Structure formats: C-alpha cells, structure tokens
Protein 1
Amino acid sequence: MTTEELKSLKVNKSVDARGTSCPGPLLAAKKAMGEIKSGDILEVLSADEGTKKDIPKWATKKKHEYLGTVEESGYFKIYVKKG
Amino acid sequence: MEENKKMCMVLFSGSIDKLTAAGVILSGAVADDMDVDIYVLLQGARAFRKDIADDPKKLNMAENVELKEEFLKSLENLKVKTWLEFFREAKSLANVKVHICGLAGKVWGADKVSDFVDITDDIVGIGECITAAQESDVHLFI
C-alpha cells in the first residue's frame, strides 16, 4: 500500500507505544490484537527502531496481514490487518 | 487447533542484567504464543526469594559490574520494565510456569513455594527440567 493509502485507512484500534522500548511495542500489539476482530485494522505508534522489523515479521507469522509503515517525525505508524 | 510451541528456559543466573535479558526474551516468546517453562537453578533461586526479587540493591551484575547504576538508570530512562515486571506480564498473557529447583532453594535458605516471589508455581527436581528440555522446541540456558 502507498503512504497515502495507509494514511486514509479506517483504523479500528490504535495503540500508542511510543513511551516504551522493545519488547513494549510488540507486546502492546499482541494485547491489542486480542481486543479486535478478524479483518479489523490495528495501528501501532512506536519510536523504537527495532519494532519496524519486529512487528511486520510477527504479524506475518501470526497470519495477520502487514499493510505497511508510515514515517512521522520522530516515530512511525505500523498498520496490521487481523487475520 | 495448532499446538503452541514450547520453550524451556533454564535460568541459572541471578544477576540483574541477565534476568532483564531473560525477561525480554520471555516477552518475545509470549508475543509468539509460546508456552514457557522456566527452571530456576542455583544463582537464579536467590533472585526469586521474595525478600530479594524486587530489590535491585540486592542483585548484582554478571558483566560490567562497576556500571550497575548506569545500567539501571538507563533502563529507567528508557522506561524498560524491571525483570520481575517482565515475568509478571508474561505470566498474565500466556502459559508461563516458574519452577524452582529444590536444591537451589535450600542453598539460599528457602524450601517452600511461599519463600519465593508470587510468580513461582512450584518446587521441582532436575528430572522435570530435563524432561521439559527434551520436549521443548526451544531450549535456552541463561
């Protein structure tokens, strides 16, 4: 998906994990996934560089769909569709 | 339904740096929906004593011992959980069991589950640890 498409997504749940370091954002994503239904879209905000690779790999392994990452100033937003 | 993968973590160390690393690894395993059995051996058992577990002053570093204050301050600045918080959170999210080696407990004057921090499930012998290691998908020694 393009950045514009990602920015226009209707997000069902957003978690702000910018105050945490690894493994905080990953665990925040796992917890949030338990609170949404299949097909819903989760947005994770993080400033932890390792999370950029961690969450996409985790999402794919867990049969969710990684949609993409949007860079913001000093942090980024990761989008995952629950499988 | 697919069975969860199993991790067997043998936690020999009772040092605050290695316990913190164990907590980070444990969190990753839990995020991956793994079932985790933690076997706490010799030095580790001291750290799990309930009068010691959450007091960083009573736990040493395994490496760079002179940098303990810097290490702890940095973790605090980064808002990293304490090792005990990592373990507690992991137990609340997945099937994580903490087993203390009976011999190890006695070495440190603790031989009942109630002598240890409340995340402790039971006191076991080494046979159970070996069986868990044989049956696990991932086996770590820390």
Protein 2
Amino acid sequence: MKPLLEVKNLHTHFLTDDGLVKAVGGISYDLHEGETLGLVGESGCGKSVSALSILRLIPNPPGKVVEGEVFFEGRDLMKVSEDEIREVRGNKIAMIFQEPMTSLNPVLTIGYQIAEPLTLHKGLSKEESWKEAGELLTKVQIPEAAARLRAYPHLFSGGMRQRVMIAMGLGCNPKLIIADEPTTALDVTIQAQLLELMKGLTRDFGTALIIITHNLGVVARYADRVNVMYAGRIVEKGSAKEIYGDPRHPYTIGLMASVPRLDMDVKKKLIPIEGQPPDLLHIPAGCAFRPRCNYAVEKCQEVIPELTTLADKHEVACWVDVRRN
Amino acid sequence: MGMREYITRRIIYALIILALSTVLLFGMVRLLPGDPIRAAMQQNVDLTDESIVQEVRARYGLDKPVHIQFVLWLRDFVKGDWGTSLSSGEPVWDMFLRRLPVTLLLFVGATFWAWVIGIPLGIFSALNRNSYLDASFTGISIVGISIPVFWEAILLIYALAVIIKIFPPSGYVPFFTSPWQNFMCIVLPTFVMGTQSAGSFSRYIRSSLLEVLGQDYIRTARAKGLREKAVVWKHAAKPALIPVVTVIGLSWGHLIAGSFIVEFMFAIPGLGRMGVDAVFARDFPVLQATLILVVINVLFANLLVDILYGYLDPRVRVQK
C-alpha cells in the first residue's frame, strides 16, 4: 500500500544574523494511513521545524526548505501552488501546537476559531459551522459546549484550550494530524487525559498522527513507530517495540537510560547523557553525536553515518554495532 | 465585571482627575506674573487712580482671598457661567461656543490626515518589512514626528501659498459663508496639525502589527489554511489595534497643543487662538476656561480609549 505521507531528504535552513542554521539536515520517512508516528529528540533537534516544513509554515525569511520532497496523496507539497497548499492546511493535514496558552487568538471567541476552518474548507454556513463547533467541543469532552462557544480563550484553562485546539484540528476530518508537543505545557494528569482523548479520536476517525515530543513515555504508549532525531537528522527509526526493546543508536540508548521505567530495578541509577546538544550553527564534522558518544571510533569524526537497515523497518545511523561492546 | 461597571468606573476616575486639575490650574493661572486688571484696562482707564483699579478688581471678585475665588469660580463654572472676558467684556461661554466648531473642524481634519496617511503607511511597512519602501516610510514617519509644527507651517505656507498660489496663506472663512473657501482655508492647518500623529501612528501600527504577526496564534491561523489576507485582517488586525488605540487617544490630546500654534500661525479664530490671546492679555477667566477645556479634552480622549479597550480586548473586561 502506498504511504499517506512520504518525506524524502528534507532540508530546512534558517539564515540568521549569526550564520546558516541547518535545522533539518536531510530526513526521510513514510507514514501510512491511521498510523501513529512519534518524533523524538531533545529541544532544538529540528523536530518541530521538520513538521512545520511539511505544511510550508516555516516563516520565510529567515527559514527555507532548501531541498527535499514531501509527497502527500500523490503530490509534492513543496512544489504545489500557494492555493493548493492552503487547501491541505487545516483540511487534509491539521496541526496542534504546543503552547495552548498562546496558540489561540485572544480576541476571537472559541466558537469562531473552531468554526473557521469548517466554513473555509467544508463550505458550511455560519450557523451550520457553529453547530458543528459545538458538537466538536462535546467530542473533546468540554461540558456545556454550546454555551462555551461564545467565551474567549482567557476564560479557559490550559488543558481546556488544548482540547479546543484538538477540536479545531479534528473539524475537517483530516487524514493527518501533526501534534507538536501537544501536552508539554500541561500537568501530568491532564496530559494523560488529552493523549487518551487524542488517540481515541484519531482511532475513531482513522486519522494518522505524528506526535512530536521529548517525552519517551508518551511515545512508548501511543506511537506505532518512532523516529529518533538528533541535530536535524534521524538517527534511528523503528517500531516502538524495537526502539524500546532493542535500541541500536548510542543516542537512543542514552535517552532510554536517562528516564525512569516502571520495569526497571528501583535501585538502578539514571544515567544522563553527558554534554550539550550541538549548536546547529556549528554542527561537528562526521557524526553530530560523536562528542557525547561513548562508543565513538575514528571514522565517526570524518563521515556522517547514513541510515542502514537492520531488520525489517528498523534502521540506524551509526558506524558502530553497539551490541558488540 | 460587566462593561457597564467598567465604564462607570472609568468615568468616576475621569471626574476625580478633573476635580484635582481644576484646583491646580486655578492656582497656576494666579501665579502668572502681571496684574490682569492693569493689563486689561491700560487703554481706556487712568491706572494711576488706585481707587478705580480697586473698584474693577472688586467687580471681578479679584480682591477676595484665592480659595474663596476658587470656590466662587467653580460654582459658577459648573452652572455654565464662565465669567466675562477681561479684555472684551464678552461672556466666556459665548466666546467658547463661537470658537468650538472651528477648532473641532480642525481636529477632525487633522485626524483625517493622520489616519489616511499614518495607518496605510504603517500597515504597508509591516507587511513588507525591510523592503526599500518600508525603509523610506520609516524615514518619512520620523521626519513627520520630529519636524517642529511652526517650521512645517512656514514651509507649507511658503511653498503652497506664496510660490504656488493654491491655498490662502492664512485666515478663516466660515463654512456657511463659503464651503469651498472654508475647505481651502483648513487644508494646510489640518495637515500641519495631523503630521505628527500620522508619523507616530505609522510607527506604532508597524511595530504592533509586526509583533502580532509573530504570535503563535497567527501561526495557528495560517495552519488552518487561511489566506494571508484573512490572517492579517481577521486574526492580526484587532489585537494589533489595541496598543494603537492608546496612541490615537493620546494624539487627540496632543492636537489641542497643536491647535494653539497652528491657529495662531494661520490666523484661525478657534479655541487655541483664544487661549494664546488670553495668555498675552492676562485674561484670567478666558485662560482658565481654555485650560480646563484642554484637561477635559484629554480626559475625554482617555475615557474613550479605555472604553474602546474594553470592546477590543475581552481580557480587559474581567480585570479587577
């Protein structure tokens, strides 16, 4: 079956006053209908930029997708016209952003903001779209939805605003929802509720989901497949089971060792990854992770390792077979 | 807190400030050097005769202690009896009514210029940030803000009334005498009065719109698939306008200062001219009334800004 989304060799650069920032340095992945993909990595590793690039939402200047193709339903989104990409945004592909407090317009009512894509893409009248907005709010479990439509965002808590964002994203029955750190700004109990809600709704609607997060727990529970990103590149790809059960990249291994797991011996210490993620202005030659890597060999300094297939769909970009050490 | 309570509260604040400023202004006017009676009477009265001066002083109540004068003045002022001019003998209220339409016309004209020049310039600059036109508009705005009013007036009179004789250099023809001549009379003065506001509007609108366009919710709007036009006008315009409303309100307050100079330079018989003349003539009743009007004007503009804020920004309404 043909994948819903095919990202091929995507490069996004930012031209800043300090120099060229290669935020995304050539990433490729597929996503099938109804699948949930986790995009994992530290802050500043290019997760969000790579997602925004898919919808051409990178502010230009300073940012620009300089190379690569993104096939969605047979078309390369990087090449279609401005009108065509607008037809995709909010309609076929919806985004849920990470800051619920600032991602809703403070001077427009909740109802207007949810109804807007419905009138835009589905051609509904104002009354119809408001009615549907009310139903969407009910779906994301906001009580007294109809009355709340006239409220402004400042009256809503962070969790409720994020529910509004989800309702807004689901409105046009998109094929794909990209959730950029959807729960980072919320407290833990609300996080779980929202993820369950999102997972449930996307399952009901058959929507594919990309969850961008630095929270490995979220990925373990909700993602079918996982891409681990480091310094603008994917360093390991695989099913959630493979990434958690059999991580092969030293960075992935480091990530796993640095978070507590319920199945872990409680006396075992967490091991942080030493050092800082690289400055994207000065990515070191060779493997970007080498300065922090315990397994590094000489070759890592010179040549960037490409992704190589280990088994089925499990791929890793490393010169070293970590199992031998 | 509802809108009604919010507005009531604002009006009460305005009244308190007005009461305090009447005290201040009354005192300040009394502190002006020079004797008003002598200044007003010097043409037709023998000022060496101290008894006549005393009599006139008593007639205007100027022989009483200052605080008594204030109470009497305030009582009459509230009743609409603003006293009579020391120099012309005309009731101040009548002078005010005759001159108010002239100044209001100038205000409206100046605001018109400020809006039609400042707002499009600001929006265009923000949407075409760092283009050559943006840079030149920035230059024009800064010239507009910094050019002294009297200097701009002289330049314009010289260019458009002396060299190229399009507009009259000065003077005023009432609208009902000749609408066309009235129009020609106010083009230059209103332009001069509006220049500074136009410059500052364009700067504020540019920065405010740019700030809003960088907000997360604008990215959300774009991610919905809205056209850039809809993003700017539906999602960015209103929040960008909120800080600009303050500037527009303040500029309305500043206009009165402009009108003092402009009406004087263009020989226009408005309230500003009345104020300037009153200063030179030490005409206490007229000067006092003019200054109170300046205060009322500024307070009114601020009140309007506060109320507009309430309508534009839903968050203001709930703040305690």
